[in-house]
């Protein structure tokens, strides 16, 4: 690990000012991913600004949303009674996303900002990684890429976005609140992440020094049903091969409202807008669900090692839709 200086901020203003003024500074919260990357030599900040003791935790409720402080842990959010009752697929994503030990350390803000799980990005001895070193190439494209993305990829990067939580939050149109040197702003999660394009090292729209302070999660209608299904190589803690977060409102056998997002297959949490268009006002039937799944994966660009994900993702989505809708499989 490279030497670095350490600063514990006394409030959000001090933290933002310190990091904004120093290109070599970065924030530290739960640290469950960042410290590993620093130990491995992937990240090497000159200064760490510790925000873990700032008053940015806690959960508050309104009639239409849950407001979650950025330093709230995954376990705290999963235990919230309103989340359990009104947002079950958010709770399921949290519980499937990490072990109990990690959920008690990892923060909601940190989860949304976790870095790619690409083995080439995380191995500094690999030179070809456009995410680490822009212009160096992408070793994953010609290497082992079974755990990589098939949607939102480019010729410069196929790294997968690993967050389970971000999948249902994307489906819900959650909003990220941030504070920066120029003031506060709110960013829809659907606009927060950036596909790699030709700049894979730029992963989101945050400006340097901007700090996530809270996430606003809209509540589903009381009559909605939701589910998060995660397909993985083993039942114990593992990243998704494919996943689906679905929420439906049904009436008289028809789908009146549909929210669908996919994980394990996109360079960003993937909102399946085309699938939602198929589902809306359509009968809650297996034929509808299969058509929606094909629409969701129509833009996939698999490589040999990820070709299986096209069919697997469609099956995952159909299974999730059937389970939520109560349709026979």
CATH class of the domain at 225-324: Alpha Beta
- Tell me the distance between the termini: 52 Å
What is the rounded Rg?
20 Å
Q: What is the structural class?
A: alpha+beta
Largest sheet, if any? 5 strands, antiparallel
Seen as an oligomer or otherwise, the chain set is: single chain
The number of distinct helices, counting runs of at least 4 residues, comes to 13
Strand order of the largest sheet: 4-5-8-6-7
Helical content stands at 25-40%
Mean pLDDT rating: 96
Going by CATH, what is the homologous superfamily of the domain at 225-324? CO dehydrogenase flavoprotein, C-terminal domain
β content, as a range? 15-25%
Number of strands: 12
Low-confidence stretches: none
What would the principal axes of the Cα set say about the shape?
globular
Fold-level CATH name of the domain at 225-324: Enolase-like, domain 1
Order of helices and strands: EHEHEEEHHHHHHHEEHEEEEEHHH
Describe it.
This protein is α+β, with helices and mostly antiparallel strands and 329 residues long. Among the domains are: 1-51, Uridine Diphospho-n-acetylenolpyruvylglucosamine Reductase, domain 2; 225-324, CO dehydrogenase flavoprotein, C-terminal domain (Enolase-like, domain 1), CATH 3.30.390. 29% of the residues lie in helices and 21% in strands. The chain has helices at 12-20, 34-39, 74-78, 81-86, 88-97, 100-103, 108-112, 139-142, 166-171, 189-192, 273-279, 286-296, 308-325; strands spanning 5-8, 25-28, 47-50, 59-61, 65-69, 175-180, 183-188, 211-218, 225-231, 242-251, 254-263, 270-271. The strands form three sheets. Strands 4-5-8-6-7 form a five-stranded antiparallel β-sheet. Strands 9-10-11-12 form a four-stranded antiparallel β-sheet. The protein has a three-stranded parallel β-sheet with strand order 1-3-2, covered by helices on one side. Helix 11 (273-279) runs antiparallel to helix 12 (286-296) and helix 12 packs antiparallel against helix 13 (308-325). It is globular and about 60 Å long.
């Amino acid at each position: 690990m490279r030497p670095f200086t350490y600063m514990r901020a006394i409030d959000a203003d001090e933290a933002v000012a310190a990091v904004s003024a120093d290109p070599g500074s970065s924030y530290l919260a739960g640290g469950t991913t960042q410290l590993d990357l620093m130990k491995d030599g992937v990240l090497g900040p000159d200064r760490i600004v510790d925000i873990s003791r700032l008053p940015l935790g806690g959960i508050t409720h309104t009639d239409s949303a849950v407001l979650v402080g950025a330093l709230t842990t995954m376990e705290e959010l999963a235990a919230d009674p309103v989340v359990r009752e009104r947002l079950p697929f958010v709770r399921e994503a949290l519980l499937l996303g990490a072990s109990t030990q990690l959920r008690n350390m990892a923060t909601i803000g940190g989860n949304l900002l976790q870095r790619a799980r690409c083995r080439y990005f995380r191995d500094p001895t690999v030179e070809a990684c456009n995410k680490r070193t822009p212009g160096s190439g992408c070793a994953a494209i010609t290497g082992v890429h079974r755990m990589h993305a098939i949607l939102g990829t480019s010729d410069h990067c196929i790294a997968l976005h690993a967050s389970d939580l971000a999948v249902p939050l994307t489906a819900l149109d959650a909003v990220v609140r941030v504070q920066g040197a120029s003031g506060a702003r709110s960013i829809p999660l659907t606009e927060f992440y950036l596909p790699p394009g030709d700049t894979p090292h730029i992963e989101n729209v945050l400006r340097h020094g901007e700090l996530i302070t809270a996430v606003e999660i809209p509540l589903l209608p009381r009559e909605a049903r939701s589910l998060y299904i995660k397909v993985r190589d083993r039942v114990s803690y593992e990243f998704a091969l494919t996943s689906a977060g679905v929420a439906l409102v049904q009436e008289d056998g028809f789908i009146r409202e549909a929210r669908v997002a996919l994980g394990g297959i996109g360079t960003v949490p993937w909102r399946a807008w085309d699938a939602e268009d198929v589902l809306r006002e359509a009968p809650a039937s297996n034929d509808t669900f299969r058509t929606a799944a094909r629409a969701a994966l129509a833009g996939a660009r698999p490589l040999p090692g990820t070709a299986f994900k096209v069919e697997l993702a469609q099956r995952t989505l159909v299974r999730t839709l059937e389970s939520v809708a109560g349709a026979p499989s």
